[in-house]
Write a structure and sequence with these properties.
By secondary structure, the chain is of the alpha+beta class. Strands 1, 2, 3, 4, 5, 6, 7 and 8 form an eight-stranded mixed beta sheet that branches. It is rod-shaped. The protein starts with about 20 loop residues before the first helix and ends in a 5-residue tail after the last strand. One of its GO terms (biological process) is intracellular signal transduction.
């Protein structure tokens, strides 16, 4: 199945997108291939005519003796070559792209043939221009031997230009097919890399025309009837031809370079915007630029995996703890700080497990924990531990809070209200304490966890047991209420002073007012 992506997946809007249907893509590729061959041959014909008529006017081919070549042989051959070239090219293309037409996975043989297809189609054009070179050189030479070097140079130069332009056009058109090969695991570095493309562009666009200018000068010096004007015109036409040919080949070559680079830049923009899911690139280039695309995709995969691990880590230990751990080296030990602790313990969990199926128990407990996590995070706390059917939350560590005690008390009231509204099947005792704790990493260097240790943890746990008498009213220690800001402290009333199990000090117990009382 094709993923829905942008209109420049292959570096150009002309090539469509990955989300296109296979039928539409085949029609697009066939149309572009035919247009590429026609345009390349048309450009070659223009170069040939310009050089023959103006660039190298002497010796001329426009004589009465050569009418049968100019008006019969040349038109007939051009027509025949056009038909044969299109037909032959279509046959080769259909044969080598049969796997794509049938929409099946390519074999290694299919991949090799497809990778060579641009050269094969270009060489078809070269073969036809080669026949034209030999045939026209012989025919013109029979009538006037002095036309042999001119004909040989003009037709062969035009053929080389056609082959070069055809290759670059066809290679560009077959990017979607190359992308399918690469995605199927058939990626092999092309011999025609970026450097080779640049050399071809230089050779056809600059080197050959310059050689032509030198040959024009040599022909002029060898012929007494050649005037200075003829030499000037010939050199000028060849120079103009070099300018246009060089520009066209440079543009085509640069398109093969800027396309992959532009796709990487677009991918980088998506990464910087945080959109890692849609940042993968379509790899369609078999040169060093394809290596760049592959490397970018590998980087994105690594970032995505890192983000997934970060998210998973944050879900296990809390996002604040995760960020603190990722920003510093892991160390055992902790620091003393003032913090509030909140303990929530389910009432009657054993009975619940005995009366319901395990899947139902898990579903109810997940709803129970969801209420707690939401309330704790809304007030800036950290859910530190899930202990069976109990929860320990911390306020003021590892992130400082202006009113840690007040946040813990407000969270306790929200949890009591939320459980009554959203999880009527369960009730829980809720206890809150405040005081000095040691917060840090506890365990071994190979495996440790962030937690808090201290009397407030024990006190909040014991208060949660006491709160099971009336689950509607969370309980808090006097020091927690005293440490909270007045607005929150006014929502709690003193109930009793008692000695909690496991503690030597007595605890002044406060209970939250029930809404409506």
């Amino acid at each position: 199945m094709r993923a829905k992506r942008g209109s420049r997946d292959y570096g150009s809007i002309l090539l469509g997108s990955v989300g296109e249907s296979s039928v539409k893509q085949r029609v697009r590729i066939q149309t572009l291939l035919t247009a590429s061959i026609v345009v390349a041959n048309l450009f070659g014909a223009i170069v040939a005519v310009a050089l023959t008529a103006v660039g190298i006017p002497q010796p001329t081919i426009f004589t009465a003796e050569l009418w049968w070549v100019n008006f019969i042989v040349v038109p007939v051959y051009i027509t025949a070559a056009f038909v044969v070239g299109i037909g032959w090219g279509t046959y080769v293309g259909v044969r080598d792209l049969r796997w794509a037409i049938r929409d099946v996975a390519p074999t290694k043989r299919d991949a090799r043939r497809t990778m060579r297809l641009p050269w094969r189609l270009s060489l078809v054009q070269g073969f036809l221009w080669g026949i034209a070179t030999v045939m026209l050189t012989i025919m013109y030479g029979i009538v006037d031997p002095q036309l042999i070097p001119k004909t040989l140079f003009v037709v062969s130069l035009s053929g080389v230009v056609v082959v070069a332009i055809s290759y670059l056009f066809i290679d560009f058109t077959l990017r979607p097919v190359a992308a399918e090969l690469i995605s199927a695991g058939h990626r092999r570095r092309k011999r025609t890399g970026v450097k080779a493309r640049s050399v071809v562009s230089w050779m056809v666009g600059s080197a050959i025309p310059i050689i032509g200018i030198l040959l024009v000068l040599a022909f002029g010096l060898a012929r007494d009837e050649t005037s200075k004007l003829d030499l000037f015109v010939g050199a000028t036409v060849l120079g103009i031809t070099a300018l246009f040919t060089g520009l066209l080949l440079t543009l085509l070559s640069s398109m093969s370079v800027t396309g992959p680079i532009r796709s990487v830049r677009a991918g980088m923009n998506r990464v910087s915007d945080g959109d890692l899911d849609n940042a993968d690139l379509v790899v369609y280039d078999g040169t060093e630029l394809g290596d760049l695309q592959v490397g970018f995709n590998s980087m994105v995969a690594g970032l995505r995996e890192r983000e997934r691990i970060r998210d998973l880590f944050g879900r296990h230990v809390g996002h604040d703890v995760a960020e603190a751990a990722l920003s510093s080296s892991p160390e055992l030990g902790g620091t003393e700080r003032l913090a509030a602790t909140l303990f929530v313990d389910v009432i009657g969990s054993t009975t619940l497990a005995a009366q319901r199926r395990p899947t139902e128990v898990v579903e109810i407990l997940n709803k129970f924990f969801a209420v707690i996590v939401r309330a704790v995070e809304e007030h800036g706390g950290l859910v530190n531990k899930f202990e069976g059917d109990a929860v320990l939350a911390i306020f003021g560590a590892p992130i400082d809070l202006d009113d840690a005690a007040g946040s813990a008390l407000a969270t306790a009231r929200d949890i009591a209200h939320g459980l009554a509204e959203e999880v009527p099947e369960l009730s829980a005792g809720i206890g809150v304490s405040h005081g000095a704790v040691v917060a840090g990493n506890v365990g071994a260097i190979e495996r440790f966890e962030y937690t808090v240790i201290g009397d407030p943890v024990n006190e909040s746990a014991r208060l949660s047991e006491l709160a099971k008498r009336d689950p509607r009213r969370p309980l808090a220690s006097g020091r927690a209420v005293k440490a909270a800001q007045q607005k929150e402290a006014d929502r709690w009333e003193e109930q009793e002073t008692t000695s909690l199990r496991g503690r030597t000090e007595e605890t002044t117990v406060f209970a939250a007012f029930v809404d409506g009382e």
